[in-house]
């Protein structure tokens, strides 16, 4: 798969564009965390989207490693690094209750990831392991795109998109489109379904 994605110009183009736009999406919250650091307060921002995005990146990274897909490995490694920084900043400045909730969610993430790693390595073999993990990614990691919906109530109450920028939604749609194209050309149904679902939830 890795060789195909590198030597097929169209697939490689979609993969590179997907990487670039994905990194931009990962970097979109930078102004939010700059504000948190500057004010030394998390205000009413929530950590849930970042915790679930970290879980998403970790699981897709594992999936990419199994497939030896360098483009997926690259973008999800970057995603894990960036999200870890965001969460660290959030924990540093959050009040006690949100901080404890974030730590609890992180613990749940790592326990869940550990269980998936153990289960897929010792009970599912060969191609079935990739297939099984792919469906876990599609089923569980839709939360990456559902999680921001928790902010919708705040947007309606304040009549402001400050906490859910429209530009980010458009970036996610474009990002999803690139990965749908990439997955379609590789005939990887898991990539296609996951990012098609993401696009639908952001439109």
TrEMBL record:
The chain crosses the membrane at residues 12-36, 48-65, 71-93, 100-120, 132-151, 163-182. Belongs to the SWEET sugar transporter family. Keywords: Membrane, Repeat, Sugar transport, Transmembrane, Transmembrane helix, Transport. GO terms for molecular function: sugar transmembrane transporter activity. InterPro entries: SWEET, SWEET_rpt. It is a multi-pass membrane protein. It comes from Sesamum radiatum. It holds the Pfam family MtN3_slv. The keyword Transcription regulation does not apply. It is found in: Endomembrane system. GO terms for cellular component: endomembrane system; membrane. This is Bidirectional sugar transporter SWEET14.
């Amino acid at each position: 798969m890795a060789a195909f994605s590198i030597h097929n110009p169209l697939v490689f183009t979609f993969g590179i564009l997907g990487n670039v736009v994905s990194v931009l999406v990962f970097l979109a919250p930078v102004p939010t965390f700059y504000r948190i650091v500057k004010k030394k307060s998390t205000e009413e921002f929530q950590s849930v989207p970042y915790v679930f995005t970290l879980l998403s990146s970790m699981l897709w990274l594992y999936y990419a490693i199994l497939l030896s897909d360098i483009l997926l490995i690259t973008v999800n490694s970057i995603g894990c690094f960036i999200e870890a920084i965001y969460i660290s900043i959030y924990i540093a400045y959050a009040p006690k209750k949100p901080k404890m909730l974030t730590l609890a969610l992180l613990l749940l993430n790592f326990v869940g990831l550990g269980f998936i790693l153990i289960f897929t390595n010792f009970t599912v073999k060969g191609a079935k392991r990739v297939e099984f993990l792919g469906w876990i990614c599609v089923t569980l990691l839709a939360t990456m795109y559902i999680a921001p919906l928790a902010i919708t109530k705040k947007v309606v109450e304040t009549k402001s998109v400050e906490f859910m920028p429209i530009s980010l939604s458009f970036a996610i749609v474009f990002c999803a489109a690139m990965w749908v194209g990439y997955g379609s050309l590789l005939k990887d149904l898991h990539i296609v379904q996951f990012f098609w679902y993401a696009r639908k939830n952001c439109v």
